Amino acid sequence: CVPRRIMTASAESYSVEDELEMATVRHRPEALELLEAQSKFTKKELQILYRGFKNECPSGVVNEETFKEIYSQFFPQGDSTTYAHFLFNAFDTDHNGAVSFEDFIKGLSILLRGTVQEKLNWAFNLYDINKDGYITKEEMLDIMKAIYDMMGKCTYPVLKEDAPRQHVETFFQKMDKNKDGVVTIDEFIESCQKDENIMRSMQLFENVI
Amino acid sequence: MAAGLATWLPFARAAAVGWLPLAQQPLPPAPGVKASRGDEVLVVNVSGRRFETWKNTLDRYPDTLLGSSEKEFFYDADSGEYFFDRDPDMFRHVLNFYRTGRLHCPRQECIQAFDEELAFYGLVPELVGDCCLEEYRDRKKENAERLAEDEEAEQTGDGPALPAGSSLRQRLWRAFENPHTSTAALVFYYVTGFFIAVSVIANVVETIPCRGSARRSSREQPCGERFPQAFFCMDTACVLIFTGEYLLRLFAAPSRCRFLRSVMSLIDVVAILPYYIGLLVPKNDDVSGAFVTLRVFRVFRIFKFSRHSQGLRILGYTLKSCASELGFLLFSLTMAIIIFATVMFYAEKGTNKTNFTSIPAAFWYTIVTMTTLGYGDMVPSTIAGKIFGSICSLSGVLVIALPVPVIVSNFSRIYHQNQRADKRRAQQKVRLARIRLAKSGTTNAFLQYKQNGGLEDSGSGEEQALCVRNRSAFEQQHHHLLHCLEKTTCHEFTDELTFSEALGAVSLGGRTSRSTSVSSQPTGPGSLLSSCCPRRAKRRAIRLANSTASVSRGSMQELDMLAGLHRSPAPQSRSSLNAKPHDSLDRNCDSRDFVAAIISIPTPPANTPDESQLSSPGGGGRASSTLRNSSLGTPCLFPETVKISSL
């Protein structure tokens, strides 16, 4: 489904008109019924979600800056920009630099109403920064650092320098079955399904809407 | 963004799924889910205009009226809407705040009204959005300043009632500062003005050459040298007056240090000092040169006129407030002068018999040219000199023309402010008088009602009906309330006339000590007797709360005496002052109150004669609702229905 755009920005030629168009990009989501069919939300829920979304972003899309801003308001003590960046990439499935309402709904649908498989898939996608199907230690370290950054300085017990690294080691020990230094999607899903804690906590955010 | 935060919360919580596989400890369970997230449309009826909004919109800000359960107080179950009896135009802005998260300030509405609406709906004024914040603050500050000016004018203004106990100093100071208050001050004001003028004119005339009739010498002398004695006498007289004035002001000033430092006093000193220095300095040739220079300072006497002229003061104040602009003007001028002088000097260097002998000499040319005076005493002759000269005159116009409008606008602003202040002061008196009239209107109605015998319980129905017919329901309740108050405090409301009369009577006898007055004159001038009790009674009411004084030694004694007086004989009532209601009031007072009164007595303040004296004049200031003492029977332990008006 191609989102209809009233005015689009052409990436190649950059002129004054383009600049004007870029500023006034508008995006209208697909019809309500279509979205309802694609996601697991009811009409009413979609309505509520869209009203809030449209209120915050009248232009219909969320760009990365706004994303980071929103997240920083939720986690004021620490620096959540890196994690927000990764999240943004995870939500922006078509990689066009903006999260439209459809992307938003798609993501939420998976996270809140999806099956465990889908959720784990999504999480894997989040961790796999370059989307090559493998989670390397470096990628994981980046993610971990981003998460720990959100905690900020004032924590108890005091945050040590190598805490993220240690956490990554633990993670890899658990997940990397063949010890080849990377975690594939199957290894990931398998290991998670074996862990009771993770399975239980998957249900945590079901009732968010 | 606070509004938006609620919208994004589900997203943030959902995104936490990304942490799940990484968690080393079990995550806590989610909080209970709310009943239903179904959204409904609320109708808010503000003075007839209906606004409809989602409940969620209002829930965004739970610490405001509309976002919290406080709005339930305004819910009208019959119509199913929330009704507010407020301004619908203002409400629009309030509701928009919920919708957009930004509070905008309406441009055509009064800031005060807007603030009140915000306060009602529980919104903090700091929520005003950035776009409107500056204007909002400016307007608010303007308002506050204006109100502060009003208040200040009220307080410091020439209020006619100077406290009677003010000393000579205070009266003198007031006379100096506000010459319009008394005739003597006005006379003094004009006399000093006249002498300033005389002094200045004498200084001027001194230098005019007079044609001598006696001596046919070709040399003309200035008048000052022809009539030295006359001028000296005039000078002396003026200086004496100025000195006297200065010393008087110094004596009367509330803060001498501040007075000494003030500009006006400095001008005064500078005006009179040369004369004294001239007296002290012996007339030898060495110093006479300096002495002559001193005479120049006599011209400063003209600045003394600024006490007499408001315009002059404004001008001075403007210059002071535009100090930065003037400084800029000066600085830029200096720069330009130096530059052009240098250029002209080097341009004209080659010419012989040139006036431009040095750069400082060229300064004069530059200044004269830049200010477009063009005397023509120094003129460039070379072509280069002429070119640069023309550039100099053109730029001069620009440099001077730039800061001048700023100074002008400053002056205009201050001048108009002053005009406004003067106008307001004049109108203020009228306003206050009108307000006082309105306030006293209600009390007068009550007094009128009482005088017509409205309080007569036992009056015949018809009589009562005649005089109390025209009272509205509100008035009835109000009068009843006032009546209850009278009963409670055992005092009565009276009018100013009666009060001031009684005040005079009380102050006569008030100086004697309490016990003597009580014991020696049980039936004597009831005025004294009742003056004590009511004052105590009133103070009882006031000071019961902060009972600092210990029970005075005499109080117990007095209590007994007073108790004894309970059965004392006939009252001496100043019946001329009082209308019928005495007896009725007497009857109305219960004996129950007697006991209560005694119990409440234990905190009699240490009543000194001074206190009692002070309290009465203090009450004189109040225009309305003065209390009349009724030493009515029981609550005050005095059965006599003696009433005088006092505090």
Automatic annotation (TrEMBL), chain A:
It is a peripheral membrane protein. CDD domains: EFh. GO terms for cellular component: peroxisome; voltage-gated potassium channel complex. It is found in: Cell membrane; Cytoplasm; Peroxisome. Its main location: membrane. It comes from the Eukaryota. The keyword Membrane applies. Residues 79-114, 115-150, 163-198 form the EF-hand domain. One of its GO terms (molecular function) is calcium ion binding. Keywords: Calcium, Cell membrane, Cytoplasm, Ion channel, Ion transport, Membrane, Metal-binding, Peroxisome, Phosphoprotein, Potassium, Potassium channel, Potassium transport, Repeat, Transport, Voltage-gated channel. PANTHER family: CALCIUM BINDING PROTEINS, KV CHANNEL-INTERACTING PROTEIN 4. Belongs to the recoverin family. This is Kv channel-interacting protein 4. The lineage of its organism: Eukaryota, Metazoa, Chordata, Craniata, Vertebrata. The gene is KCNIP4.
Automatic annotation (TrEMBL), chain B:
It is found in: Membrane. Signal peptide: none annotated. Residues 144-164, 510-532, 601-632 are annotated as: Disordered. Keywords: Ion channel, Ion transport, Membrane, Potassium, Potassium channel, Potassium transport, Transmembrane, Transmembrane helix, Transport, Voltage-gated channel. GO terms for biological process: action potential; protein homooligomerization. It comes from the Eukaryota. Gene3D superfamilies: 1.10.287.70, Potassium Channel Kv1.1, Chain A, Voltage-gated potassium channels. Chain C. GO terms for cellular component: dendritic spine; neuronal cell body; postsynaptic membrane; voltage-gated potassium channel complex. It is a multi-pass membrane protein. Residues 510-520 have a biased composition (Low complexity). GO terms for molecular function: A-type (transient outward) potassium channel activity. The chain crosses the membrane at residues 187-205, 259-281, 326-347, 359-375, 387-408. Residues 521-530, 623-632 have a biased composition (Polar residues). InterPro entries: BTB/POZ_dom, Ion_trans_dom, K_chnl_volt-dep_Kv, K_chnl_volt-dep_Kv4, K_chnl_volt-dep_Kv4.1, K_chnl_volt-dep_Kv4_C, Shal-type_N, SKP1/BTB/POZ_sf. Residues 40-139 form the BTB domain. Component of heteromultimeric potassium channels. Identified in potassium channel complexes containing KCND1, KCND2, KCND3, KCNIP1, KCNIP2, KCNIP3, KCNIP4, DPP6 and DPP10. Belongs to the potassium channel family. D (Shal) (TC 1.A.1.2) subfamily. Kv4.1/KCND1 sub-subfamily. This is A-type voltage-gated potassium channel KCND1. It comes from Saimiri boliviensis boliviensis.
